[in-house]
Each structure stands twice: as structure tokens, then as C-alpha cells.
Specification:
- Strands 1-2 form a two-stranded antiparallel sheet.
- Helix 2 crosses helix 3.
- With 74 residues, the chain is mainly α.
- The chain is built from five helices and two strands; from the N terminus they run βαααααβ.
- It is globular and about 40 Å long.
């Protein structure tokens, strides 16, 4: 999944450490999130969305290797 977390964080003037403290995660988690090595849990994604006051889908969106969901078997 791709995201706009780094851009949003830097626009606020926050370091990774400051951002991590606000979210209650480690700086390493913020770094992994920003570099696309980590997809956040839904609760963390909602905290990030709430912090920036913008919708989830504005921050997080499918990457080139993410496939759209398929219908389940009935």
C-alpha cells in the first residue's frame, strides 16, 4: 500500500520521533510506514487520519502490486 504519511508529517514540521510519540508507536514503525515496508493496522490508520483530519483514502491507497478485492465464494 502506498501512502502520503511522510509528506503530511513534514508539512506539519514534525520529526519521525515527534510523530511516533503522538501516535503511540516507535520511530521505526513510522519509518517503515513511510517507506512502504509496513501497512498500518486499521486502528493506527484511523489515528493517522484523525490526526491530519483527512479521510483514510486520501492518505492510503493501493500500490502497484496490490490487487483489488475479489468476491467471496458463496
Amino acid at each position: 500500500m502506498r501512502n502520503e504519511v511522510r509528506r503530511l508529517r513534514t508539512e506539519q514540521g514534525w520529526t519521525q520521533v515527534q510523530f511516533a510519540e503522538v501516535l503511540g508507536v516507535s520511530r521505526q514503525t513510522v519509518n517503515a510506514l513511510e517507506t512502504g515496508k509496513y501497512d498500518p493496522s486499521l486502528p493506527l490508520a484511523f489515528r493517522i487520519s484523525h490526526l491530519f483530519s483527512i479521510p483514510l483514502e486520501t492518505i492510503f491507497f493501493p500500490g502497484e502490486h496490490d490487487s483489488p478485492p475479489t468476491g467471496g465464494k458463496r
